[in-house]
Design brief:
Helix content is 51%, strand content 9%. It has 70 residues and is mainly α.
């Protein structure tokens, strides 16, 4: 995640365009967006789609909770 979203997850330029801030976002929002990528409903990042499809819902929820706490 850090290679695109930055070491502090504050977002910034990434290989596929500007990566959004993740740190401090609401966990429910992050989890919902990860789910959209996992279902292939958002095609703005091939990397995100592949990464999120490789995780199950529980893993995505734990990641969202972690990022929300930053």
């Amino acid at each position: 995640c850090q290679s695109c979203h930055g070491a502090d997850f504050a977002g910034g330029p990434g290989p596929e365009g500007v990566a959004p801030r993740l740190a401090g976002q609401f966990a429910a929002y992050l989890e919902a967006q990860m789910g959209v990528f996992a279902r292939g409903e958002r095609a703005t990042s091939k990397t995100m789609t592949l990464m999120m499809k490789s995780l199950d819902a529980g893993e995505r929820a734990r990641i969202a909770k972690y990022l929300a706490g930053l």
